[in-house]
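#struct-help
A.M.: can someone run this one for me? Single chain, 425 residues.
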Amino acid sequence: MAEHDTPQDTSHDLAPPSLDAAPWLARPETLRVFAALSGETGATRAVGGALRDALLGLPVADVDFATTIAPEEVIARARKAGLKAIPTGLAHGTVTLVADGVSFEVTTLRHDVETFGRHATVSFTEDWAEDAARRDFTLNALYAGMDGTLFDPLGGYPDLMAGRVRFIGDPAMRIEEDYLRILRFFRFNAWYGRGAFDAAGLSACVRARAGLRQLSSERVASEVKRLLVAPQAAVAVSVLFDYGLLCDILGAAPKLSRFARLIGIEDALDRKPHAILRLAALAVFVPEDAKRLARRFKLSNAEQALLALGGVPFVDALPDEAAAKRKLYALGPTAYAARVLLAWANGDAPVTDPAWRSAATLAERWDAPVFSLRGTDITALGKFSGPEIGDMLRRVEQRWIEGGFAEDREGLLALAKALTADGGS
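D.P.: on it. Structure tokens below:
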């Protein structure tokens, strides 16, 4: 190679491999669906995410199918083969088949006559390339038959191998069909992209950003949560911010440095990411932020509780082991770990800091004990009113906590007797 030559991108020349050895393709329930839909007429192929993930060596969860068979005939063939068939979206050609307790979506090939968000007027077809052309990204327009032969009408395989997330056809048209594709573009880059984002796709997303306001809170929240836990989440979030979309999505200015630090800490601890915790690191600074985001994304009560931890200071300084145990006992393992991770990310201690690591992993090394006294234990010591019983239990528990949780049940009973004897002081 000459001194100033640059390596050529040869990914466009890659020949699609066979998936005949893919484990998901050999599963009995998958084969039952293929067998039920086989016959003298019609063709059926697996499509989309299962193929994409299998080609990348990732675990395959759901398997979807595309078929030239009309939806009513899909139902008839499936039921004849003993499969449960549910007409979940007949207007769009989609039937859900259940084989051995596993659900599969089967959609008849189609092209979209008219689109408006999640809804479209469709026309069924037997043309695989026409069906592929109505999908969003080339890496999602991959098909495979029961023998594992890959059908790639739009060059999705080389794009997938190169980490290129590329819209099918005109990006602006694809986005106008459904503005959620703006967020999907960033989410798919966060999961599968490598290198710079596709320039045409990025430009189209930025120009169409106002369309995000037409989307439901639930759809936006779903995409955001899936993006935040992706391997390249920090890159995608940074690009969203640089091009002005992130503030539109969150409704406020984020803190990218805390978000990036949390990701680094999670990686150092080999901890599975949690979308809401990352959202808290990114966008929650005071309790009002959590309330606003909870309303904006219509989060569950459990998600709201976790998100709110981002706006609550943990401690002024890292607690020692005894103080950390008291915090863990009071908060519970989930909230405790979240508070420590957010506090760590909010500071400047390195991700290798041993004291912070010890605090963050305390719940994995120490099971908080259970306070074993009950109201009946107090009433056995004398005649006390309801409020007096509750007050006595709180006093005993507080002494027990301050003593490092040392007393067993007998020790707690002795402590209760002593407090009773001296009037509870």
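A.M.: thanks! The first helix runs from residue 23 to 26.
D.P.: also worth noting: The chain has four domains: 12-162, 164-245, 282-365, 375-421.
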